[in-house]
Design a protein that fits this description.
The protein is an alpha/beta fold and 379 residues long. Helix content is 36%, strand content 23%. The protein has 13 helices and 17 strands. The strands form three sheets. Strands 16-15-12-11-7-10-9-8-17 form a nine-stranded mixed beta sheet. It has a six-stranded parallel beta sheet with strand order 3-2-1-4-5-6, with helices on both faces. Strands 13-14 form a two-stranded antiparallel ribbon. Helix 2 (42-52) links the parallel strand 2 (32-38) and strand 3. Helix 4 (82-91) runs parallel beside helix 5 (106-119) and helix 8 crosses helix 12 (339-359).
């Protein structure tokens, strides 16, 4: 049932860095009311509630889930808390929007997917790159047949020196495998891997090889205050069913000024997506093909494209951001993109890279699934 303009009432779980980012986005949206917020740090929850005019504050998420005036919750917690809180929300009859990655392991992500199906609830994962202008342009070119048969993609992310906490921002929890499950691949790589999976049509993973590094110097003071046992640089190579491949390089920290951006190639054409370094655009979107035996390199004005499509395409506003899409799906205006499935496959790839590194060889998807264990924190 389509309910255009219906106010969606949401409860926030988590008042930290990510929770505040979600709240800033909601503040700029119509048809959304944040009814309540929950955090074990009551003082921080009260402070955030005051800033964003949220009427009800909790320190126990289970108590908040008892409210019958919220239909959905937004989970902004550390990775190994995603599964237990999400499943508890399903049990309470709420739909769930969860921060990336889907969970700390593929096993826990799969449990979340199965629970959503069992309870008949929506599960949406925050994969912000799917709503970028360059992703929309790339998808249009692919769907229009301009690339032909897709056979390779590259997922990349770059920070010169941007490790959480160690390099000055964020908390030590990002560096602790027991809490965060992984480093650059899970924190940053999820966005670029998911983006490439989406453009490739989320093919089935067959085999993975990869390696993680933690080699660069760290601030001695910060190092003494944190457990740092996750990768600052993650590398991977993935083979899919049907023959397509994906290579990955994701750097929290590396002695390079930039890394080439994400790309997708087919037998008729190729796309280079903008290269970002520490949030700065290093190279623009481009399309490459051969016409009349001439090699053509094309550019696109993404702002003009986006502005025009906003007027011409129905429900285009529902793809403005992950949260716009979530609210529109709850209103019944659009079908929810399969972000939970894409995110679970992204987690399979990240976990496969960790397993390959540990074993020192290529691994199969079956091996990854068999060896994936729950790392969910029991609440």
């Amino acid at each position: 049932m389509i309910e255009m303009g219906r106010t969606v009432r949401i409860g926030m779980i988590g008042a930290g860095l990510i929770g505040k980012a979600h709240l800033r986005n909601y503040a700029n949206m119509e048809d959304v009311q944040i009814v309540s917020i929950c955090d074990i740090n009551e003082q921080e929850a009260l402070k955030v509630a005051h800033e964003f005019h949220i009427p009800h504050v909790y320190t126990d998420f289970r108590e908040m889930l008892k409210r019958d005036d919220i239909e959905a919750v937004d989970v902004c917690l550390h990775n190994n808390l995603h599964a237990p809180v999400t499943i508890a929300a399903f049990e309470a009859g709420k739909d769930v929007y969860c921060e990336k990655p889907i969970a700390g392991t593929y096993r826990d992500g799969l449990t979340m997917l199965e629970a959503a199906e069992d309870y008949g609830k929506k599960l949406h994962i925050q994969l912000g790159t799917l709503y970028r202008k360059e992703t929309k342009a790339a998808k249009a070119l692919i769907d229009g047949g301009m690339l032909g048969k897709l056979y390779h993609a590259r997922a990349t992310g770059h920070r010169r020196r941007g490790r959480p906490y160690i390099d000055g921002y964020g908390t030590p929890a990002f560096l602790n495998k027991q809490i965060a499950a992984g480093g650059a691949l899970i924190d940053m790589g999820v966005y670029h891997i998911a983006q490439m999976l989406y453009l490739l049509g989320t093919p089935k993973v067959e085999r993975i090889s990869g390696k993680g590094y933690r080699e660069m110097d760290v601030d001695a003071g910060r190092a003494g205050q944190a457990v740092f046992d996750v990768e600052e640089l993650g590398l991977g190579f993935i083979k899919f069913e049907g023959g397509a491949t994906l290579d990955i390089i994701e750097a929290w920290s590396i002695h390079l000024g930039s890394i080439e951006g994400c790309s997708v190639v087919g037998d008729k054409g190729g796309i280079k997506l903008p290269a970002y370094s520490d949030q700065q655009i290093m190279a623009p979107f481009s399309f490459h093909t051969t016409i009349c035996d001439m090699d053509i390199n094309g550019s696109v004005n993404l702002d003009e494209m986006d502005g025009r499509w906003n007027h011409l395409k129905p429900n285009y506003d529902a793809y403005q951001s992950s949260q716009h899409h979530w609210v529109a799906a709850l209103q019944g205006r659009v079908e929810l993109l399969p972000t939970a499935h894409i995110a679970s496959q992204t987690m399979l790839i990240s976990e496969g890279i960790y397993l390959s590194d540990r074993l020192g060889r290529e691994v199969s998807s079956d091996e990854i699934i068999e060896q994936s264990l729950s790392k969910a924190i029991q609440l």
